[in-house]
Specification:
about 525 residues, alpha+beta
């Protein structure tokens, strides 16, 4: 039997190793989206492909990295005969890796003395991977192919040497080829860091002790999750919410039946809308991410994040629906907007069981902004960011202003970085006062961010939600204010849709105002 102290040391070291992977990736990255906004996630897996440690990076990657790794390995085994020492694999196909095309996944098999010891993996959002619009998330995409280049699992490295043709494929399909290839190198650095740390543990304690420590950690997380679910209590709970379509109508429904029984959770999404012809579909990996995020947030977020956390949870989603679409439905916005709404739906269901633990709804959108075009000298560029909103009022405190809520956990790009890297000027950046819903504990306020095109030609794509249906309050709290987009051209302001693409001219100013969070409790 393994020494429990050694087991804890190994488990904690793996968690920090995954965090260190993220530091290496961030510090090596080229694009502001990764090095400034931290739009990446890292994880370590054992030789059987089980998640053993994941950094606290992007919640929307919580379920998709393990889900995607298993599917990548299935294809690698079936079509390539399995992994070999000295390789690194790359893919971005959402129906394999689990999010959207911008999220490029790198997988490194780790060998110790010729024997497979585990895997290091990371996922990073590349600002542009081709497609019909700069940023690769066109609001009118009718299928996956309009969203960018689709890369199945393929070797990025062989015998520890980068395969130039693989990098060239990404460069040729990106409006930012230098940033794209630079970010791939940063992802390689992240995986090498994870490999080095995992092998240090194997060499220090031996393969058998390392394996026993992993088994103990997975079983411990499972026991802790089951105990936390039992503490909530048994019952059946329901929640429903809506997304707005391209016309702004809240016509797309997510409905959930949550059953808690003896330390297990069954989530059934029967009744959710069928997959749609706009890019709001969320592949199943994204749906899993929302489930696991919400359950961990409400149960015990200190439980070590590994495959053991997933064992007590079953998720059923009918195929061909919004949360489990069939290929080649467009999915770029599902990873961002639909993931947010799904997380809120799970939290609303949990609020029926433990209202004292769950805040009111947040602003409920990542308010995605994609800008790109051509400079006067002919160089192409692409910019992407999400924008914070108001978090919901909490049972014991007000909501937080202008924060990236729930499924994103990233940052706004600093003004200095935007103006240094792109032909853009930030003319306004402030809290949208009064947008949080009133209540005993008010919702957080959204933000206002105005962006001016300085030169050249450009196209803007906006993907947001909660522009018509207000973020609801809870227990008598009032709803937060809706978001809004405006375009100022030649001194005239025009309201524009939440989900749209439009051309920009030099001097145009695009203003994003994000929704506030709902209030918690009636005012006394």
């Amino acid at each position: 039997m393994i020494d429990p102290i050694v087991a804890e040391i190994v488990s904690a070291a793996l968690v920090y190793a995954s965090e260190e992977m993220g530091l290496a990736l961030r510090n090596s990255a080229y694009s502001p989206n990764i090095k400034e906004r931290l739009d990446h996630s890292c994880a370590l897996f054992d030789r059987d492909g089980r998640l053993i440690a994941q950094a606290e990076h992007i919640p929307v990657h919580l379920g998709s990295l393990p889900w995607g790794l298993k599917r990548m390995l299935e294809i690698i085994v079936r079509e390539h005969g399995g992994v070999r020492e000295g390789e690194m694999w790359v893919a971005n196909d959402p129906y394999v890796t689990g999010t959207h095309l911008n999220d490029v996944t790198l997988l490194r098999p780790i060998f110790d003395g010729g024997r497979l010891a585990g895997f290091s993996a990371n996922k990073a959002h590349h600002a542009d991977v081709g497609g019909a619009a700069p940023g690769s998330m066109p609001a009118d995409a009718a299928d996956l192919f309009a969203e960018g280049v689709v890369v199945p699992p393929m070797r990025l490295m062989r015998e520890d040497r980068v395969i130039a043709e693989a990098v060239a494929l990404f460069r040729a399909n990106s409006r930012t080829p230098d940033a794209c290839s630079g970010d791939l190198r940063a992802q390689i650095a992240g995986n090498y860091t994870g490999e080095r740390r995992l092998l240090e543990l194997v060499n220090r304690y031996g393969a058998q002790t390392f394996g026993e420590a992993i088994a103990r950690a997975l079983d411990g997380s499972e026991r802790a999750m089951r105990a936390a679910l039992r503490k909530i209590g048994d019952g059946v709970f329901h929640a429903t919410d809506y997304l707005e379509d391209r016309d702004g109508e809240p016509s797309i429904v997510i409905t959930l039946r949550l059953e808690l029984r003896d330390g297990s959770a069954l989530l059934d999404y029967t009744g959710t809308s069928a997959q749609c012809g706009i890019p709001l579909n969320a592949v199943f990996g994204v749906t899993l991410s929302g489930v696991h995020y919400a359950l961990r947030a409400v149960t015990d977020p200190t439980i070590p994040m590994n495959e053991g956390c997933f064992r007590p949870v079953e998720v059923r989603v009918p195929e061909g629906t919004l949360l489990n679409p069939r290929r080649p439905a467009p999915v770029s916005g599902g990873n961002v907007e639909t993931s947010m709404r799904n997380a809120e739906v799970v939290l609303q269901a949990l609020a029926c069981a433990v209202p004292e633990r769950v805040p009111a709804c947040s602003g409920g959108t990542m308010s995605n902004v994609m800008l790109g075009g051509t400079r006067p000298d002919g160089r192409t560029w692409a910019f992407y960011e999400t924008n914070g909103c108001g978090s919901g009022g909490r049972p014991n405190a007000d909501g937080i202003d202008a924060i990236h809520c729930h499924m994103t956990n990233t940052l706004n790009t600093p003004i200095e970085a935007v103006e240094r890297e792109f032909p853009l000027r930030i003319t306004r950046y402030e809290i949208a006062e009064g947008t949080g819903g009133a209540g005993r504990h008010r919702g957080g306020n959204g933000l206002i961010r105005s962006i001016e095109l300085a030169e050249g030609t450009a196209q803007a794509t906006l993907l947001a939600d909660r522009h018509k249906l207000q973020p609801p309050g809870t227990h008598g709290g009032e709803p937060g204010s809706c978001g809004r987009h405006t375009l100022k051209r030649d001194g005239t302001k025009t309201r524009i849709a939440a989900k749209t693409s439009l051309p920009l001219e030099p001097g145009d100013i695009l203003t994003i105002q994000t929704p506030g969070g709902g209030g918690y409790g009636a005012r006394s």
